[in-house]
Specification:
CATH architecture of the largest domain: Alpha-Beta Complex
Bound molecules: cyclohexylformamide, zinc ion
Order of helices and strands: EEEHEEHEEEEHHEHEHEHEHEHEHEHE
Helix content: 10-25%
CATH topology of the largest domain: Quinone Oxidoreductase, Chain A, domain 1
Distance between the termini: 20 Å
Shape: globular
Strand content: 15-25%
Oligomer: single chain
Length: about 375
Protein backbone atom coordinates (compact mmCIF):
# COMPACT_ATOMS: atom_id res chain seq x y z
CA UNK A 1 0.00 0.00 0.00
CA UNK A 2 1.69 3.11 -1.31
CA UNK A 3 -1.00 5.59 -0.24
CA UNK A 4 0.53 8.74 1.18
CA UNK A 5 4.00 7.80 -0.10
CA UNK A 6 5.80 8.60 -3.34
CA UNK A 7 5.57 5.91 -6.03
CA UNK A 8 8.49 4.93 -8.24
CA UNK A 9 7.39 4.00 -11.76
CA UNK A 10 8.17 4.23 -15.46
CA UNK A 11 7.46 7.32 -17.52
CA UNK A 12 8.22 8.47 -21.06
CA UNK A 13 9.99 11.78 -20.48
CA UNK A 14 10.33 14.47 -23.14
CA UNK A 15 13.81 15.80 -22.35
CA UNK A 16 14.20 18.10 -25.36
CA UNK A 17 11.79 19.51 -27.93
CA UNK A 18 11.26 17.26 -30.94
CA UNK A 19 13.50 14.47 -29.64
CA UNK A 20 12.26 10.93 -28.93
CA UNK A 21 10.78 10.40 -25.47
CA UNK A 22 13.06 8.64 -22.98
CA UNK A 23 11.80 5.77 -20.81
CA UNK A 24 12.87 6.58 -17.27
CA UNK A 25 12.18 5.65 -13.67
CA UNK A 26 10.56 8.62 -11.98
CA UNK A 27 8.97 9.51 -8.62
CA UNK A 28 5.31 10.49 -8.36
CA UNK A 29 4.34 12.35 -5.16
CA UNK A 30 1.14 11.42 -3.32
CA UNK A 31 -2.00 13.43 -4.15
CA UNK A 32 -2.50 16.71 -2.26
CA UNK A 33 -5.87 18.12 -1.20
CA UNK A 34 -8.51 17.78 -3.99
CA UNK A 35 -6.22 15.44 -5.92
CA UNK A 36 -6.19 11.79 -6.94
CA UNK A 37 -3.27 9.57 -7.92
CA UNK A 38 -4.15 7.35 -10.86
CA UNK A 39 -2.56 4.29 -12.45
CA UNK A 40 -2.86 4.79 -16.19
CA UNK A 41 -4.33 1.80 -18.07
CA UNK A 42 -3.81 3.19 -21.54
CA UNK A 43 -3.31 6.54 -23.19
CA UNK A 44 -3.52 7.74 -26.77
CA UNK A 45 -1.62 10.37 -28.69
CA UNK A 46 -3.44 13.60 -29.51
CA UNK A 47 -2.07 16.15 -31.93
CA UNK A 48 -1.67 18.72 -29.13
CA UNK A 49 0.96 16.48 -27.51
CA UNK A 50 2.97 16.64 -30.72
CA UNK A 51 2.45 20.40 -31.10
CA UNK A 52 3.86 21.16 -27.65
CA UNK A 53 6.58 18.47 -27.88
CA UNK A 54 7.90 20.16 -31.04
CA UNK A 55 7.78 23.66 -29.60
CA UNK A 56 11.13 25.29 -29.00
CA UNK A 57 9.91 28.70 -27.84
CA UNK A 58 7.78 29.61 -24.84
CA UNK A 59 5.35 28.26 -23.64
CA UNK A 60 7.76 25.32 -24.12
CA UNK A 61 9.08 23.80 -20.90
CA UNK A 62 11.27 20.72 -20.60
CA UNK A 63 11.80 18.10 -19.29
CA UNK A 64 8.12 17.34 -19.42
CA UNK A 65 5.68 14.44 -19.22
CA UNK A 66 3.20 14.78 -22.07
CA UNK A 67 -0.03 12.85 -22.69
CA UNK A 68 -3.56 13.99 -21.89
CA UNK A 69 -5.90 11.47 -23.57
CA UNK A 70 -6.14 8.47 -21.25
CA UNK A 71 -7.99 6.22 -18.83
CA UNK A 72 -6.84 4.92 -15.46
CA UNK A 73 -7.67 3.47 -12.05
CA UNK A 74 -7.64 5.47 -8.83
CA UNK A 75 -4.68 4.33 -6.70
CA UNK A 76 -5.17 6.75 -3.80
CA UNK A 77 -7.02 9.96 -3.00
CA UNK A 78 -5.94 13.14 -1.22
CA UNK A 79 -7.86 15.11 1.43
CA UNK A 80 -11.35 16.38 0.66
CA UNK A 81 -11.95 13.98 -2.21
CA UNK A 82 -15.27 12.19 -1.95
CA UNK A 83 -16.21 11.84 -5.61
CA UNK A 84 -14.03 8.76 -6.20
CA UNK A 85 -12.41 5.97 -4.18
CA UNK A 86 -9.49 3.65 -4.77
CA UNK A 87 -10.27 1.27 -7.64
CA UNK A 88 -12.64 3.58 -9.52
CA UNK A 89 -12.05 3.84 -13.26
CA UNK A 90 -11.57 7.44 -14.39
CA UNK A 91 -11.01 9.42 -17.56
CA UNK A 92 -8.79 12.53 -17.21
CA UNK A 93 -9.76 15.73 -19.01
CA UNK A 94 -7.51 18.73 -19.76
CA UNK A 95 -10.39 21.17 -19.20
CA UNK A 96 -11.59 21.56 -15.60
CA UNK A 97 -15.17 21.00 -14.45
CA UNK A 98 -15.39 21.78 -10.72
CA UNK A 99 -19.17 21.56 -10.83
CA UNK A 100 -19.46 24.35 -8.28
CA UNK A 101 -18.66 27.70 -9.94
CA UNK A 102 -21.12 29.93 -11.77
CA UNK A 103 -19.90 28.68 -15.15
CA UNK A 104 -20.05 24.98 -14.25
CA UNK A 105 -23.59 25.55 -12.94
CA UNK A 106 -24.64 27.40 -16.09
CA UNK A 107 -25.62 25.49 -19.20
CA UNK A 108 -24.17 28.30 -21.33
CA UNK A 109 -20.51 27.53 -20.67
CA UNK A 110 -18.04 24.68 -20.25
CA UNK A 111 -15.23 26.93 -19.05
CA UNK A 112 -14.80 26.37 -15.31
CA UNK A 113 -13.92 29.60 -13.48
CA UNK A 114 -12.53 27.88 -10.36
CA UNK A 115 -9.70 26.41 -12.45
CA UNK A 116 -9.67 28.46 -15.67
CA UNK A 117 -7.88 26.89 -18.63
CA UNK A 118 -4.23 27.87 -18.89
CA UNK A 119 -1.18 26.28 -20.45
CA UNK A 120 0.60 25.72 -17.14
CA UNK A 121 3.42 23.23 -16.53
CA UNK A 122 2.12 22.58 -12.99
CA UNK A 123 -0.86 21.17 -11.12
CA UNK A 124 -3.81 23.52 -11.60
CA UNK A 125 -4.72 24.38 -8.00
CA UNK A 126 -1.40 25.17 -6.34
CA UNK A 127 0.93 25.58 -9.35
CA UNK A 128 3.46 23.05 -8.05
CA UNK A 129 4.63 19.72 -9.51
CA UNK A 130 4.26 16.05 -8.47
CA UNK A 131 6.98 14.50 -10.68
CA UNK A 132 10.73 14.26 -10.16
CA UNK A 133 13.41 12.16 -11.80
CA UNK A 134 15.76 9.98 -9.73
CA UNK A 135 18.20 12.89 -9.41
CA UNK A 136 15.46 14.95 -7.79
CA UNK A 137 15.05 17.20 -10.81
CA UNK A 138 11.55 18.52 -11.56
CA UNK A 139 9.60 17.01 -14.50
CA UNK A 140 6.89 19.37 -15.70
CA UNK A 141 3.21 18.55 -16.14
CA UNK A 142 1.19 18.93 -19.35
CA UNK A 143 -2.44 20.02 -19.80
CA UNK A 144 -3.33 18.98 -16.22
CA UNK A 145 -3.00 15.28 -17.10
CA UNK A 146 0.54 14.00 -18.02
CA UNK A 147 -0.54 10.46 -18.87
CA UNK A 148 2.74 9.24 -20.45
CA UNK A 149 3.58 7.81 -17.03
CA UNK A 150 2.45 4.64 -15.26
CA UNK A 151 1.15 6.88 -12.46
CA UNK A 152 0.00 10.48 -12.54
CA UNK A 153 -1.74 12.93 -10.23
CA UNK A 154 -4.98 14.62 -11.30
CA UNK A 155 -7.05 17.35 -9.73
CA UNK A 156 -10.55 16.10 -8.94
CA UNK A 157 -11.95 18.76 -11.32
CA UNK A 158 -9.99 17.16 -14.16
CA UNK A 159 -11.38 13.62 -14.05
CA UNK A 160 -14.64 11.81 -14.71
CA UNK A 161 -15.62 8.54 -13.07
CA UNK A 162 -16.90 6.09 -15.66
CA UNK A 163 -18.55 2.70 -16.01
CA UNK A 164 -15.63 0.23 -15.66
CA UNK A 165 -17.14 -2.19 -18.19
CA UNK A 166 -16.34 0.04 -21.18
CA UNK A 167 -13.25 -1.21 -23.11
CA UNK A 168 -10.42 1.11 -22.00
CA UNK A 169 -8.90 1.54 -25.48
CA UNK A 170 -12.22 3.03 -26.61
CA UNK A 171 -13.17 4.98 -23.47
CA UNK A 172 -9.81 6.78 -23.50
CA UNK A 173 -10.71 8.42 -26.83
CA UNK A 174 -13.41 10.38 -25.03
CA UNK A 175 -10.73 12.00 -22.88
CA UNK A 176 -9.90 14.58 -25.58
CA UNK A 177 -10.01 14.38 -29.38
CA UNK A 178 -13.13 12.40 -30.22
CA UNK A 179 -15.13 14.18 -27.53
CA UNK A 180 -13.98 17.53 -28.89
CA UNK A 181 -15.20 16.76 -32.41
CA UNK A 182 -18.43 15.03 -31.47
CA UNK A 183 -19.13 17.70 -28.83
CA UNK A 184 -18.63 20.50 -31.34
CA UNK A 185 -21.39 19.09 -33.56
CA UNK A 186 -23.65 18.09 -30.70
CA UNK A 187 -23.23 20.76 -28.03
CA UNK A 188 -21.61 23.78 -29.69
CA UNK A 189 -23.36 23.79 -33.07
CA UNK A 190 -26.39 21.75 -32.05
CA UNK A 191 -26.58 20.20 -35.54
CA UNK A 192 -30.14 19.14 -36.26
CA UNK A 193 -31.72 16.52 -38.48
CA UNK A 194 -31.45 17.32 -42.19
CA UNK A 195 -28.77 20.00 -41.87
CA UNK A 196 -25.76 20.60 -44.08
CA UNK A 197 -22.32 20.52 -42.53
CA UNK A 198 -18.87 21.43 -43.91
CA UNK A 199 -15.77 20.18 -42.13
CA UNK A 200 -12.40 21.78 -42.89
CA UNK A 201 -9.65 19.24 -42.19
CA UNK A 202 -10.33 15.51 -41.94
CA UNK A 203 -7.92 14.51 -39.19
CA UNK A 204 -9.24 12.81 -36.06
CA UNK A 205 -11.03 15.97 -34.89
CA UNK A 206 -12.70 16.59 -38.25
CA UNK A 207 -13.74 12.94 -38.51
CA UNK A 208 -15.13 13.12 -34.99
CA UNK A 209 -17.17 16.17 -36.04
CA UNK A 210 -18.48 14.05 -38.95
CA UNK A 211 -19.39 11.26 -36.54
CA UNK A 212 -21.15 13.77 -34.28
CA UNK A 213 -22.99 15.35 -37.22
CA UNK A 214 -23.97 11.89 -38.46
CA UNK A 215 -25.54 10.91 -35.14
CA UNK A 216 -27.32 14.28 -34.98
CA UNK A 217 -28.94 13.40 -38.34
CA UNK A 218 -27.11 15.75 -40.72
CA UNK A 219 -28.19 15.15 -44.34
CA UNK A 220 -25.05 16.38 -46.10
CA UNK A 221 -21.58 16.25 -44.58
CA UNK A 222 -18.95 17.89 -46.78
CA UNK A 223 -15.32 17.10 -46.02
CA UNK A 224 -12.69 19.61 -47.12
CA UNK A 225 -9.05 18.53 -47.27
CA UNK A 226 -5.92 18.76 -49.41
CA UNK A 227 -5.53 14.99 -49.43
CA UNK A 228 -7.90 13.00 -51.65
CA UNK A 229 -7.29 9.83 -49.62
CA UNK A 230 -9.14 11.49 -46.76
CA UNK A 231 -12.38 11.14 -48.66
CA UNK A 232 -12.25 7.33 -48.57
CA UNK A 233 -11.53 7.49 -44.84
CA UNK A 234 -14.16 10.19 -44.39
CA UNK A 235 -16.91 8.04 -45.93
CA UNK A 236 -16.53 5.59 -43.03
CA UNK A 237 -17.31 8.47 -40.68
CA UNK A 238 -20.36 9.75 -42.49
CA UNK A 239 -18.76 12.22 -44.91
CA UNK A 240 -21.06 12.33 -47.95
CA UNK A 241 -19.27 14.84 -50.22
CA UNK A 242 -15.70 15.92 -50.68
CA UNK A 243 -13.92 19.10 -51.71
CA UNK A 244 -10.30 18.66 -52.72
CA UNK A 245 -8.72 22.03 -52.03
CA UNK A 246 -6.00 21.28 -54.60
CA UNK A 247 -8.64 20.97 -57.34
CA UNK A 248 -10.44 24.24 -56.70
CA UNK A 249 -8.10 26.15 -59.00
CA UNK A 250 -8.45 29.90 -58.57
CA UNK A 251 -11.80 29.55 -56.86
CA UNK A 252 -11.84 30.01 -53.11
CA UNK A 253 -13.09 26.85 -51.36
CA UNK A 254 -15.99 28.86 -49.95
CA UNK A 255 -17.29 29.57 -53.45
CA UNK A 256 -17.34 25.84 -54.22
CA UNK A 257 -19.20 25.14 -50.99
CA UNK A 258 -21.73 27.94 -51.56
CA UNK A 259 -22.48 26.36 -54.96
CA UNK A 260 -22.72 22.82 -53.58
CA UNK A 261 -25.13 23.87 -50.85
CA UNK A 262 -27.23 26.45 -52.66
CA UNK A 263 -26.08 29.30 -50.46
CA UNK A 264 -23.85 27.90 -47.74
CA UNK A 265 -23.59 25.13 -45.17
CA UNK A 266 -25.67 25.41 -42.04
CA UNK A 267 -22.66 24.57 -39.90
CA UNK A 268 -18.94 24.88 -40.65
CA UNK A 269 -16.13 23.49 -38.54
CA UNK A 270 -12.46 24.44 -38.80
CA UNK A 271 -10.30 21.57 -37.54
CA UNK A 272 -6.78 22.52 -38.65
CA UNK A 273 -5.80 25.75 -36.92
CA UNK A 274 -5.12 27.84 -40.05
CA UNK A 275 -6.38 31.43 -40.13
CA UNK A 276 -7.10 31.29 -43.86
CA UNK A 277 -9.20 28.17 -43.39
CA UNK A 278 -11.12 29.75 -40.50
CA UNK A 279 -11.94 32.65 -42.84
CA UNK A 280 -12.99 30.24 -45.60
CA UNK A 281 -15.16 28.32 -43.14
CA UNK A 282 -16.89 31.53 -42.07
CA UNK A 283 -17.37 32.51 -45.72
CA UNK A 284 -18.88 29.06 -46.45
CA UNK A 285 -21.73 29.18 -43.99
CA UNK A 286 -25.23 30.23 -44.80
CA UNK A 287 -26.76 33.61 -44.18
CA UNK A 288 -30.01 33.98 -42.36
CA UNK A 289 -32.95 33.20 -44.60
CA UNK A 290 -34.86 36.05 -43.10
CA UNK A 291 -34.53 38.15 -40.01
CA UNK A 292 -37.37 36.45 -38.19
CA UNK A 293 -35.34 33.26 -38.02
CA UNK A 294 -33.55 33.71 -34.76
CA UNK A 295 -31.35 30.69 -34.68
CA UNK A 296 -30.06 27.79 -36.64
CA UNK A 297 -28.26 29.03 -39.71
CA UNK A 298 -24.74 30.07 -40.50
CA UNK A 299 -22.69 28.99 -37.53
CA UNK A 300 -18.93 28.47 -37.80
CA UNK A 301 -17.10 26.62 -35.05
CA UNK A 302 -13.32 26.92 -34.70
CA UNK A 303 -11.63 23.88 -33.13
CA UNK A 304 -8.16 24.09 -34.70
CA UNK A 305 -5.32 25.41 -32.55
CA UNK A 306 -3.70 28.39 -34.33
CA UNK A 307 -0.16 29.62 -33.85
CA UNK A 308 0.25 31.95 -30.86
CA UNK A 309 -0.57 35.49 -31.95
CA UNK A 310 -2.18 34.50 -35.24
CA UNK A 311 -5.13 36.65 -36.31
CA UNK A 312 -8.17 36.14 -38.49
CA UNK A 313 -9.94 38.71 -40.57
CA UNK A 314 -13.69 38.74 -41.23
CA UNK A 315 -15.40 41.25 -43.54
CA UNK A 316 -17.35 43.43 -41.13
CA UNK A 317 -20.27 43.96 -43.50
CA UNK A 318 -20.56 40.21 -43.93
CA UNK A 319 -20.94 39.93 -40.18
CA UNK A 320 -23.46 42.77 -40.07
CA UNK A 321 -25.56 41.77 -43.05
CA UNK A 322 -25.52 38.02 -42.74
CA UNK A 323 -26.24 37.35 -39.10
CA UNK A 324 -23.73 34.53 -39.21
CA UNK A 325 -21.98 33.49 -36.00
CA UNK A 326 -18.39 32.53 -35.38
CA UNK A 327 -17.47 30.71 -32.21
CA UNK A 328 -14.51 28.82 -30.79
CA UNK A 329 -14.87 25.87 -28.46
CA UNK A 330 -12.50 24.09 -26.10
CA UNK A 331 -13.34 20.41 -25.65
CA UNK A 332 -16.17 20.89 -28.15
CA UNK A 333 -18.18 22.82 -25.58
CA UNK A 334 -18.67 19.68 -23.50
CA UNK A 335 -18.95 19.66 -19.74
CA UNK A 336 -16.74 16.71 -18.89
CA UNK A 337 -18.51 15.30 -15.84
CA UNK A 338 -22.00 15.23 -17.29
CA UNK A 339 -21.33 14.79 -21.02
CA UNK A 340 -18.64 12.06 -21.12
CA UNK A 341 -20.95 9.50 -19.44
CA UNK A 342 -23.65 10.35 -22.02
CA UNK A 343 -21.22 9.76 -24.90
CA UNK A 344 -20.07 6.49 -23.32
CA UNK A 345 -23.64 5.30 -23.06
CA UNK A 346 -24.22 6.14 -26.70
CA UNK A 347 -21.12 4.08 -27.51
CA UNK A 348 -22.39 1.14 -25.46
CA UNK A 349 -25.76 1.47 -27.24
CA UNK A 350 -23.86 1.13 -30.57
CA UNK A 351 -25.00 4.56 -31.57
CA UNK A 352 -21.69 6.46 -31.36
CA UNK A 353 -18.87 4.64 -33.14
CA UNK A 354 -15.44 4.80 -31.53
CA UNK A 355 -13.71 1.65 -32.78
CA UNK A 356 -12.84 3.05 -36.20
CA UNK A 357 -10.76 5.85 -34.66
CA UNK A 358 -8.29 3.32 -33.22
CA UNK A 359 -5.98 2.62 -36.15
CA UNK A 360 -2.94 1.45 -34.16
CA UNK A 361 -2.04 0.06 -30.72
CA UNK A 362 1.45 -0.17 -29.20
CA UNK A 363 3.06 -1.04 -25.87
CA UNK A 364 4.31 1.77 -23.65
CA UNK A 365 7.96 0.97 -24.51
CA UNK A 366 7.14 1.74 -28.15
CA UNK A 367 5.52 5.12 -27.49
CA UNK A 368 7.85 6.84 -29.98
CA UNK A 369 6.28 4.72 -32.71
CA UNK A 370 2.97 6.43 -31.93
CA UNK A 371 4.67 9.79 -32.57
CA UNK A 372 6.12 8.56 -35.88
CA UNK A 373 2.75 7.26 -37.07
CA UNK A 374 0.99 10.53 -36.29
CA UNK A 375 3.78 12.64 -37.84
CA UNK A 376 3.63 10.54 -41.02
CA UNK A 377 -0.14 10.99 -41.13
CA UNK A 378 -0.64 7.21 -40.92
CA UNK A 379 -2.69 7.03 -37.76
CA UNK A 380 -5.89 8.52 -36.43
CA UNK A 381 -5.62 7.32 -32.86
CA UNK A 382 -2.75 5.13 -31.67
CA UNK A 383 -3.55 3.59 -28.28
CA UNK A 384 -0.54 3.13 -25.98
CA UNK A 385 -0.95 0.34 -23.41
CA UNK A 386 0.88 0.72 -20.09
C1 LIG B 1 -6.00 21.65 -26.87
C2 LIG B 1 -6.92 22.78 -27.01
C3 LIG B 1 -6.24 24.09 -27.18
C4 LIG B 1 -5.11 24.31 -26.29
C5 LIG B 1 -4.19 23.15 -26.18
C6 LIG B 1 -4.87 21.89 -25.94
N1 LIG B 1 -6.76 20.60 -26.40
C7 LIG B 1 -6.46 19.32 -26.46
O1 LIG B 1 -5.78 18.73 -27.24
ZN1 LIG C 1 -5.95 16.64 -27.05
Amino acid sequence: NEAGKPIRCKAAVARKPGEPLVMEEIMVAPPSRHEVRVRIICTSLCHSDVTFWKMKVLPAVFPRIFGHEAIGVVESVGEDVDEVVKGDVVVPVFLANCGDCADCKSNKSNLCSTLPFQLSPWMPRDQTGRFTDLKGEVLYHFLNVSSFSEYTVLDIAHLVKIDPSVPPNKACLLSCGVSTGVGAAWRTANVEKGSTVAIFGLGSIGLAVAEGARICGAAKIIGVDVNLEKFEIGKKFGVTDFVNVGECGDKPVSEVILEMTGGGADYCFECVGLSSLMEQAYASCRKFANLRVIQGWGKTVVLGVGLPGSQISIPSLDLLHSGKTLIGALFGGLKAKSDIPVLLKRYMDKDLQLDKFVTHEVNFEDINKAFDLLLEGKSLRCVIWM
